[in-house]
Amino acid sequence: MDLSVFFAGDIAVDASSYTMNEDTSKYCIQVLRHEAGDTVLLADGRGRRFTAIIADDNRKKCVVNISAITLMPPPTPVLRIAIAFTKNASRIEWFLEKATEIGIQSIIPLVSQRTEKEKVKAERLQNILVSAMLQSKQYYLPVLQEPQAFEQVVKQSKDAQRFIAHCLPEQQQSLQLLMEPGKDTIVLIGPEGDFTPEEVKLALGAGFEPVSLGANRLRTETAGMVAVVMMNIVNNL
Predict the structure, then answer these.
(1) CA end-to-end span of the chain
(2) Where do runs of H (alpha helix) occur along 162-219?
(3) What mean pLDDT is predicted for residues 207-213?
(4) Which pTM was predicted?
């Protein structure tokens, strides 16, 4: 039987018991109808899976006793995407949800010259990542980094494979064909107006390879999704 998985980001690595917060308790007891004696799973988002038995089925403070702790193998290679967030928050929220379900490990909000300035609502976006992680039965929560300037990402990236997807009329190969499996990878996805020629030149000079995501011109979040899918296909994840 599939066991329910709940997020416990603040649980100690050697915990013997744990008290769920009110929202999680309500979902566990009222919505899923769990009761004392039921076995559930907890995920801390850092790879640990806690097998737990409900000791107190209080709908506001559900208490569980930990019966086993398993460190799940980390996903490899590390797949990262640096993407310019859209002004329409719902579109980037959709991307974050689906990218997490598919298996991205790190997301960098990319601030390029044409990025539409919009304040990142970190707590809301973090909740979306957590929900998607639980939905897809994963135990590693993707890292949502602080927004970073394009130049900073380009200059500091140490990934074995570095790609920039852009729409300028330059020779490009398909990301899926150019990318090699088993190597840490980062892909840069630009804003609606695309990267500027100067930004593309800077990235190429720093060792990034230009790639295509298909024949059609894609919206930012669609391009990001295609890139995530291609990275996972190459690595058979």
Answers:
(1) 24
(2) 175-178, 197-205
(3) 94
(4) 0.92
Cα gap 147→119, rounded to integer Å: 10
Whose CA is closest to 27, among 146, 153, 172, 130? 130
Name the nearest CA neighbour of 221 among 86, 81, 118. 86
At 132, give phi and psi (nearest 5°).
-70, -35
Collapsing DSSP to helix, strand or coil, 124 comes out as helix
Contact 81, 224 (CB under 8 A): yes
HSE-up of residue 220 (Cα within 13 Å, Cβ side): 29
Q: Which of 15, 19, 108, 91 is nearest to 60 (CA)?
A: 19
Q: What does the alpha-carbon distance between residue 234 and residue 30 come to, in Å, rounded to a whole number?
A: 42
Q: Which of 58, 128, 138 is nearest to 98 (CA)?
A: 128
- Per residue in 123-173, pLDDT (tens digit) is 999 999 999 999 999 999 999 999 999 999 999 999 999 999 987 777 788
Q: How far, in Å, CA of 184 to CA of 42, rounded? A: 28
Give the contacts of 25 (CB within 8 A, at least 6 positions apart).
58, 59, 60, 61, 62
